[in-house]
Amino acid sequence: MRLGATMTIERKLALQAWIFLALPVLFFCLIRFYPALESFGIAFSEWNLLSPPKFVGLANFSRMVEDPVFWIAFRNTFLYLLIGTPFSLLLAFFIAYHLDQVRFAHGLIRACYFIPHLTSAVAMAWVWRWFYQPPPVGLFNNLLNSVGLDTQPFLRSTAQALPAVLLPAIWAGLGFQIVLFMAGLRAIPSSYYEAARIDGAGRWMVLRDITIPLLRPTIVFLVVISSIGFLRIFDTVFNMTDNGAGGPLNSTKPLVLYIYESAFRSYQMGYAAAQTIVFFLILLAVSLIQLRLMRTR
Question: At a CB cut-off of 8 Å and minimum separation 6, what does 57 contact?
């Protein structure tokens, strides 16, 4: 008796689904899970890619505690998170809320906001790097000089470099956030707004008591996704700073860039793997805390 003859339709469909999913799941395990598990072993060893790994115990983690550059990168990473996430979400919601009420050229305006999200991060970073250059090259300094203001160092300043790098990162992700906010706004039943108008509710009351509470799932999703994005910021910093070093004086260097430098510039694979584990725990903790604080009871 054939195997197929004894199987129900549901089991046949499930088997077909697993057959189609087998190759992608295998590929994902080899590309994602295996390197992640391998990094746990490398983190407790000293390895420069040329000689065999040598077990050193917790030496890499002890070095991390005493490494001033690591703590600078750690601080910068959380600055990207704490400044970038709330500012970008508030700006995206403000634009989406008002864009949702536009009827003329709505699709064109939405596409204009979304185009930066589709643009190559490398190309975008180099264009913004040109904007920040000194006169007569840089666009921003030329505009400042044209109205009588002094030239600003921007990427050459330890105080201005991080905000200068963060601004294009916010701009690039704005379109994605706007589209999701607009989808959430369109999903709210119009009957709620009609009932509020009949009851005499003002615009602010409708926003506070209807729009924002019903957008909670969208807000939670965007907060988590945006936070992970800002914690993992790399391309913008690497391409906008000289030699991709996160300067000046490491003032823009995030943890991801420092991990990259430790692994592929200094060839300290064990130290880079130890930093990766710490970074993974940070991502996990931030995501769980946000989900815990913002979940709907």
Answer: 44
